[in-house]
Write a structure and sequence with these properties.
The chain folds into two domains: about 110 residues, DNA polymerase, domain 1 (Orthogonal Bundle); about 120 residues, hpI Integrase, Chain A (Orthogonal Bundle), CATH 1.10.443.10. Helix content is about 55%, strand content about 5%. It is built from eleven helices and three strands. It has a three-stranded antiparallel β-sheet, with no helix packed on it. A hairpin with a 5-residue loop joins β2 and β3. The longest helix has 22 residues. It starts with a helix and ends with a helix.
Length: about 250
């Protein structure tokens, strides 16, 4: 009985169950959400070890008190210069962990309630910006289409313009997600976009977009990502951001 009580008191087993059993098995959260929650724990656990002076495998659930969590949030805002939005994202992950433990361990219900009383900060909302058509046309003309990479960049920028998809969504579009109609019915083409929370939506593609995508994906395996980098690996969302910034400069 003592061993079982000790097991439920230790934080480590709960973290493992939270990451593998809850996020993946029960919630089936999107890959980026899972990574965000893992990143939060990768920051929180070393912080706790340093502040509490305990080995990581000896940390208990109760060690993550509400006051301790507030210190952690203050630390990442000051030392890591995290934005309010990032701070709130980290707190959401901690709230989720606390609820997971509290729902399965009655002796931790009070601790769960105390942690979940930590409030999110209000963040100022920035105004949505956009490009005028002339500016968008100039951006689309920026890549050097006499080169293979320039053609890829132009197709990617046009795809972003056409679909309004997020960079991460574009990075994960596979050739099999494209439904490219043959000429002269290319205005019936579309793409299946996999969004946040594993939600899907189908977006129509302009004939102009299809004309740029067709040679890009011709004779390639349907399981490959549409947009690849210079080494043939899938472009990441960070690579797409860099690409857009380079051509917008």
């Amino acid at each position: 009985m003592k061993k079982k009580a000790k097991d439920t008191a230790l934080l480590g087993p709960w973290v493992k169950r939270f990451l593998l059993e809850h996020l993946v098995g029960e919630r089936n959260l999107a890959r980026n959400t899972q990574q965000s929650y893992r990143d939060t724990l990768r920051l929180l656990l070393p912080f706790s070890v340093s502040r509490l002076g305990k080995p990581i495998d000896q940390l208990s659930v109760e060690d993550l008190s509400a006051d301790h969590i507030r210190e952690f949030l203050q630390d990442i805002e000051v030392k890591r210069e995290c934005s309010v939005a990032t701070r709130n994202q980290r707190l959401a992950a901690i709230h989720s962990l606390a609820r997971f433990i509290g729902m399965r361990s009655p002796e931790h219900v009070q601790w769960c309630g105390e942690v979940r009383t930590i409030l999110f900060k209000k963040a100022p909302r920035s105004l949505m910006t956009y490009l005028e058509k002339a500016e968008m046309d100039a951006l689309l003309e920026a890549p050097d289409r006499s080169t293979k990479l320039g053609c890829r960049d132009h197709a990617l920028l046009l795809f972003l313009y056409n679909t309004g998809a997020r960079a991460d969504e574009v990075a994960h579009v596979r050739i099999k997600d494209l439904d490219l109609a043959a000429t002269p019915n290319r205005d019936a083409s579309s793409v299946l976009i996999h969004g946040k929370g594993n939600k899907q939506r189908r977006c129509p593609l302009w004939t102009r977009t299809v004309n740029e995508l067709s040679p890009l994906v011709s004779s390639r395996d349907s399981t490959e990502n549409v947009f690849l980098n210079r080494t043939g690996q899938p472009l990441t969302r960070f690579g797409i951001h860099t690409l857009v910034e380079r051509h917008a400069a």
